[in-house]
Specification:
Length: about 240
Amino acid sequence: MSEQEQNKVAVVIIAHPDDAEFGCAGTVATWIDDGWEVYYVVCTDASGGGPDDATDVGPAARQAVAETRKREQRAAGEVLSLKDVIFLDYPDGQLQPTTELRRDLVRVLRRYRPTRVVFQSPERVWTPMLIIPRHHPDHLAAGQAAIVAIYPASQNAWDFSELLQEGLLPHKVREIYIMGAPSPNHVVDISTTIERKLAALQAHVSQHVNNPAMEEFLRTRSAELGNKYDMAYAEEFHRTEMR
Ligand SMILES: [Zn+2]
């Protein structure tokens, strides 16, 4: 077994607080139960996560929203026993798959050296019943930046050569798990961790004030996915091994 196969470290790259609770927290909890160390990387500063009908959206209000949502994401991390939650602090609602974001993600990948990386699909999925949040431009941008950070940049010393000066050597990610992908090919049974997934979601208190039915929606959705695979609750991904 290679050194990398023994490295039970996973990184979850998301645009906003609570994105991972919807997409992969049940899976993350199964991995943590199996001895993995998991880090969340939130690309934005979460400053745009207040109510859609808010009237005060000035800098002070944005700052207050950002602080609340970061605190809530850290609390969700404690529910799940994450190793850490890292915020890259790009302005919420304006995320782009820039070279700067790619460099920041490569820095994280080279520092924590994960075997597995989870991220949001960079593609829109058109279905009769749209899951609209999957089409959020920040989600698409985070996914696009993540996949190009993983390949080739993280594993190629010639990409972002300045990171070598920080002592960050190239790193090859072994497995990727894409949330909300057009063609899921991998299911994870989360029957033993569904309550932790929902408890982590509940930690995002400010979001529940606006939408108290969110937990019920997520439980039902997880059960519907489980039903497809003869499981009580499930999460599905497009999983790919990088060779
Ligand atoms: Zn989001």
